[in-house]
Amino acid sequence: MLRIWGRTNSINVQKVMWAVGELGLDFERMDVGGEFGGLDSADYGALNPNRRVPTLQDGSFSLWESNAIVRYLAAKHAAGGLWPTEPEARAVADQWMDWQQTTLVPDMRIVFWGLVRTERGKRDTPKIDAAVESLKSLWDRLDRHLGERSFVAGDAFTMGDIPVGAMCHRYHALGVERAASENVAAWYERLKRRPAYQAHVMLPLS
Ligand SMILES: N[C@@H](CCC(=O)N[C@@H](CS)C(=O)NCC(=O)O)C(=O)O
Fold first, then answer.
1. Cβ(38) to ligand 1 under 6 A?
2. Is 161 helix (H, G, I), strand (E, B) or coil?
3. What is the CATH number of domain 87-200?
4. Residue 14: CB within 6 Å of ligand 1?
5. Residue 196's pLDDT is what?
6. Which of 36, 41, 79, 136 lies in disulfide reach of 31, CB 3.0 to 4.6 Å?
7. CATH homologous superfamily for the domain 2-77
8. Which three-class secondary structure state does DSSP give residue 124?
9. 65 in contact with ligand 1, CB cutoff 6 A
């Protein structure tokens, strides 16, 4: 059985849990990180030297980095489905997975930490406002891409939808001003109909 280490309110854990849910795999999840602590132990450090969540254990194999875990699970259990076998579709899925980590995360982190994890009086409002503005044009890039396809890598749901899809729920839940982004909105509605998204991603912000 798979073991996933990480608290449910971590977006990076949510990506992995969503993938596990889509694949219908048996799992046990261990609450570590955030208020649960546990990342400083020697045993956890041996599994994940970054001391972050998530970490996956699959038998004697362990893996960290959420997007790498999603790719691993998809390749192992759903080649031709969640893991596209056609090279161009897989590359496009990979592209948007990397884009989420490298391009979307910095501004999303500023807004999420600023509004959800920082007391009102201590917020750096100009910095948060600038990130909110920047996010409009970032999400617009995905909006233009989704104008020509139903999902990130084509007309079927794949691993490429998972990192940006998890972040999309968080973006909407933050309640900040967003651009119209009609294609993102329609795609988000499609994601919201997926039981694994409802179970593992559509959780209250905390
Ligand atoms: N790039 C890593 C980032 C991992 C990361 O920063 N995780 C955060 C939670 S989203 C964490 O472990 N924070 C410390 C904690 O939970 O105590 C990944 O995608 O897995």
1. no
2. helix
3. 1.20.1050.10
4. no
5. 98
6. 36
7. Glutaredoxin (3.40.30.10)
8. coil
9. yes
